[in-house]
């Protein structure tokens, strides 16, 4: 897993980071990239476009919670719910299925 956060201050570094990550994603046939709920998704969109230019179909697999909980009622509005939401988002975007949670596991 490779992570880059937003856009670096220097234009040349920004393009190099996106280019290197796109090359890696295309070589490894990574199916999905994820955005953080608190960040602007422009960097991930640029990564997807750069990966498409290399002939690989990378998609946004969903939004992950990192620095903030979800809105009330979202299922990600508690710390355990946030973790379950992230696991579900990643697993499903990568083609897997999440087993049902045991009763009473989440508040």
Name some characteristics of this structure:
107 residues, elongated, 42% helix, single chain, two-stranded parallel ribbon, 10% strand, mainly alpha
Describe the overall structure:
This protein has helices spanning 11-28, 42-53, 79-93; strands at residues 32-36, 59-64. 42% of the residues lie in helices and 10% in strands. A two-stranded parallel ribbon has the order 1-2. The protein is built from 3 helices and 2 strands. With 107 residues, the chain is mainly alpha-helical. The longest helix is centred in the first third of the chain and has 18 residues, at 11-28. Strand 1, helix 2 (42-53) and strand 2 form a beta-alpha-beta unit.
The backbone outline, from C-alpha atoms, is elongated
Count of individual beta strands: 2
Q: What's the average pLDDT?
A: 87
Strand content: 5-15%
| Backbone structural class | mainly alpha
Rg from alpha-carbon coordinates: 16 Å
Give the strand order, joined by hyphens, for the main sheet. Answer: 1-2
Order of helices and strands: HEHEH
* Low-pLDDT stretches: none
Specify the number of helices: 3
Estimated helix fraction: 40-55%
End-to-end C-alpha gap? 30 Å
Most strands sheet:
2 strands, parallel
